[in-house]
Target: Amidohydrolase
Amino acid sequence: MTSEIGLKWVNEHSERLIETSDKLWEFAETALHEYQSSDLLQGELKQAGFEVETGVAGMPTAFRARWGNGTPTVGFLAEYDALPGLSQKSVPRKEPMKEGAPGHGCGHNLLGTAVLGAALALKAEMEQDNLSGTIVVFGCPAEEIMVGKIVMAREGLFDELDVALTWHPQSLNGVMNCGWVAMNSVKFDFHGITSHAAFAPEMGRSALDAVELMNVGVNYLREHVSSNARIHYVITNGGREPNIVPGYAQVWYYIRAPKREEVDAIYARIKDIAEGAALMAGTKVEARLLTACHDCLLNTSLNRHLSDSMQCVASPVWSEEELRFARELTQGFDANQRMRQISIFTRDNLEGHMLHSDVLPLNDTHILLPGSTDVSDVSWIVPTGQIMTACYPIGIPPHSWQLTASVSTSIGHKGMLYAAKVLVKAASELIREAGLLARVKAEHLKNTSEKKYVCALPEDFSLSTVHLE
Ligand SMILES: [Zn+2]
Model:
């Protein structure tokens, strides 16, 4: 059972969607500051007859928009936050729109817009074919600081869904049938005693010494964690001047591992190391967990369905001009580096290809991505599927000025429209085919029978702390 109404809707409204995506790109608002971006998407949904709640889960830039009646309830997850310092013009050489300003270096302008397009197209299709069901669009802020969906999940916002769909701009077309690692973001504040470093060093207790000792300790720990675990840190405060014994110092850690439980275990050991370092330096330490996300739970039935949907919708064909632009953007990266970037998704040799035009077959071997996403938290609550579409040149690293440039051009626009079409097609079939949705839900139930979702945010989690960071 299939219908072309949703696909037709996206084609007929492509100009409007491109305009929306370009506006989000220009707003380029960072996590929890996405006021104009959130407003724009909410406005489009309201205009289409969706009932919109603003500021859900205590976040002013989050929203929930609902349309329809009865079941099934299909959720779409929209993101629209930009990254600091990645401002860039729509040109293939480094040229910030405004030096140091934020930019859409992860392509969330496209992400939010394709989700909007898919939801509106699905509504058009459901109206015309008289289908029962509810569409819920979640405006999820602050993905880049791993906050939005986790706070929304804690509030139970996704509980009503039968299935959730989303996507992410990438340099390849395919289903994201891959694991994302769990993560803790945590700051350690060390408090010592300030003193003159030359006249009275014996009276001082250096908080920076403690930070350095802690980092040495953690670097020894690396040998004793699984090889897929990642621990990275930056010293965010190491004192002011060499002649003042630092009375305060801070180090910020990300701890990642394939499973939530493993992150918890590594975090416990790192806290012990911090205590040990504080003791050695005669200081005190305080650990502040800023945010924590889960690993991703895959749903094979849903991913197979998404893969079929991707194969059924025509993927973008690139013009000479787009290929030229892409080639210019890849200058400065050697081919080996670029191929390494995509090797996690495909063994195909795409050397010499600038823009991906095929669709990768569904990968059955378990791929574990080294990064994290707050979509993972949703995946434990409700069957969640993610696709990716080619919106930038093959092998360009995410969070780069090259990516900011690409997602404002027809390359990004084509990838965004393709994603919207695949999502509406996949969602429409999930609504029409009760057996398909039942299979997807049964798999989810089986996978979560032993482990129910428990939000990993700390008890005293405060949005205002993260917001101020
Ligand atoms: Zn992203």
